Amino acid sequence: MAKWSLGKREHASWALFIAPAFLIYTIIFLGPVVTSFYYSMTNWNGLSKTMDFVGLRNFAHLASDAAFLKALRNTFLFTVLVVLLQNGLAIPPRAGA
């Protein structure tokens, strides 16, 4: 049985230390993201036992929905205004320092 070189030993310890964090990240973050993306491609209402795959039809419906487009515009406008206002209020006091 061959001994591991220092580089391989460091790789193995790195993998052992990162594995629990990666597992937790996968379960808590990536799992729900992938699942919700899959559900967005179906017509499942969240309660029924059946669901049919509809592909991008849900997103095409959103793109033509006036209420969604108005909400998207309002969200974008709010974000831009808040960023400009907060930075506008924060930068002048620092300019004199």
Automatic annotation (TrEMBL):
Stretches that traverse the bilayer: 12-39, 59-85
Subcellular location: Cell membrane
GO CC annotation: plasma membrane
Domain of life where this protein originates: Bacteria
Entry keywords, A to Z: Cell membrane, Membrane, Transmembrane, Transmembrane helix, Transport
InterPro entries: ABC_transporter_permease, MetI-like_sf
Primary localization: membrane
Recorded topology in the membrane: Multi-pass membrane protein
Protein name, as recorded: Sugar ABC transporter permease
Native species: Cohnella rhizosphaerae
